[in-house]
Write a structure and sequence with these properties.
Helix content: 25-40%
Radius of gyration: 23 Å
Distance between the termini: 59 Å
Strand content: 25-35%
Largest sheet: 14 strands, mixed
Oligomer: single chain
Length: 487
């Protein structure tokens, strides 16, 4: 916190703006210190604190207090399915749960002990609270993503990794302005962005209620006048689909930074057509790289020259493109992207998960590199995304393992086998069984977060396999296209 807020402690600049509340830097720090003191009075230190809140500002204040008190945070959104929340809590070592009053009933239904945010933050504090000491290798946060085992997988991120990424991004981008964040709140993209904005003394503009869709988003932009927007391509697609940019004058936006899934040429062309002077920044990163590591400002030449590039590495990041035997490929050849950087994740929870970290021998020792599973190629100094090397996808800003959806579907009675594919931003489930598609959807959708819910369920006589006996997802997509054409 000393690193992030060293010059903001008595500042009247707005740190956070939501629909109904503005929090200045001085209030943010003072309120966080009060809550941190209350957490310390509970005699907790270097423990996981699970946060379940009803408003964004409560989350942001709670995050600050958890860090100041020497603990680390885990974000659980209030609409997370019960089975997923329980799985996350059980995977942690001696966690404490902190909820605000609006989410109190969620924990009561789970039968989990909890502390109430409003009661802790109203406590009195005499004098200044001294931040508890933590080390660089201590945990900053654990972010839960989809796992191949059918359970959420926790990506453990250290203080050192987060500080390294903030330093890298601050030198690469300008966060010293009013910035609207519309990506999912609990993703690494949002968390990284929040702390980059804090460090740069900017203002976070973020909506609590996104249920109103693009119309609410436009009203919020017109009210807050952000100069920069950080989000996922799916948000912008929705924005353009309803022609809101056409109908309403949005002249404050100077830059739009997009990450979380592949950026398509069509979206950039339409966006540039609606807001000709806006800068469109394509960002690339992953939870394991603690957010954005590669980026590019998309120019007209990028739009007209094949696929949209993901750009060049930011400061403190080295990339390697390797073949099947981990040998670096030539410029222009396709290979898997390996990342070498100070800001990598520490490990997974459960620790039995494949860590995807390799050690490469160099002249001066060994380097630690993360295998992303993404296929890319490099032309000149610019990197282009080709696709996934396995069955992991990025959808609506979240990383999803298709096998997790398979396992969830196969838990339903009278389903014999399932195979999930991803086509045209749609999650499609094929299944063998004697259950009605609609009934199956009702059961499975109750157990999955909104962003993981399939677009369609298709009954099939036999799941298509290749010669090695493995599910052939490519042929399943071809089957889907043939069936769609015949209808």
């Amino acid at each position: 916190m000393d690193y992030v807020f060293n010059s903001n402690k008595n500042d009247e600049t707005s740190a956070i703006e939501t629909e109904n509340r503005t929090i200045k830097y001085e209030e943010l720090i003072n309120s966080s210190n009060v809550l941190a003191k209350s957490l310390s009075d509970l005699d907790i230190y270097k423990r996981p604190v699970v946060l379940v809140m009803g408003t964004i500002e409560n989350y942001l204040l709670a995050i600050m207090s958890v860090i100041i008190s020497g603990n680390y945070f885990i974000l659980v959104e209030k609409n997370t399915p019960i089975n997923r929340t329980i799985s996350i809590i059980r995977s942690l070592d001696n966690p404490i749960v902190l909820v605000d009053i609006s989410c109190k009933s969620i924990m009561e239904n789970l039968g989990v002990e909890y502390e109430i945010y409003e009661e802790l933050i109203e406590s009195k504090m005499d004098g200044n609270y001294v931040e508890k000491e933590t080390l660089g290798e201590d945990i900053f946060t654990i972010i839960y993503t989809s796992g191949t085992t059918g359970h959420p997988k926790g990506v453990v991120i250290s203080n050192y990794a987060m500080v390294s990424r903030i330093a890298s991004m601050k030198d690469s981008c300008n966060f010293e302005e009013r910035i609207m964040v519309v990506s999912a709140f609990s993703t690494i993209l949002s968390i990284m962005s929040f702390f980059c904005i804090y460090k740069s003394h900017g203002t976070i503009s973020i909506m609590n209620d996104k249920g109103g869709g693009p119309a609410s988003l436009v009203r919020f932009i017109q009210d807050k006048h952000p100069s920069m927007l950080i989000g996922t391509p799916s948000w912008i697609y929705m924005f353009l689909q309803y022609r809101f940019i056409e109908k309403y004058k949005i002249d404050s936006l100077k830059r739009i930074c997009l990450a979380g899934s592949e950026l398509k040429k069509d979206l950039v062309k339409r966006l540039k057509g609606e807001i000709p002077d806006v800068e469109v920044i394509n960002w690339y990163g992953a939870t394991e790289t603690v957010g954005v590591i590669i980026g590019i400002n998309i120019k007209e030449t990028n739009i007209d020259s094949g696929s949209i590039p993901i750009g060049t590495p930011y400061k403190n990041v080295k990339i390697h493109i390797r073949d099947d035997v981990a040998k670096e490929v030539e410029n222009g050849e396709i290979g898997e992207l390996y990342v070498e950087t100070d800001g990598l994740y520490s490990n997974y929870l459960p620790e039995s998960e494949n860590r995807n970290i390799i050690f490469m021998k160099k002249d001066n020792g060994f380097s630690c590199e993360y295998r992303t599973g993404d296929l890319v190629k490099k032309i000149g100094d610019t990197i282009y995304y080709i696709g996934r090397i396995d069955n992991q996808i990025k959808h609506k800003g979240y990383r999803i393992e298709l096998e997790e959806i398979d396992k969830m579907v196969e838990q339903v009675e009278c389903v014999y086998e399932a195979a999930t594919v991803y086509y045209e931003d749609r999650i499609i489930v094929f299944f063998e069984g004697e259950v009605d598609e609609g009934f199956l959807a009702d059961i499975v959708n109750e157990k999955l977060p909104v962003y993981m819910r399939p677009y369609e369920y298709i009954r099939i006589k036999k799941i298509i396999r290749n010669n090695n006996g493995k599910v052939d997802r490519k042929q399943l997509v071809e089957y889907y296209l043939r069936e769609r054409e015949s209808v």
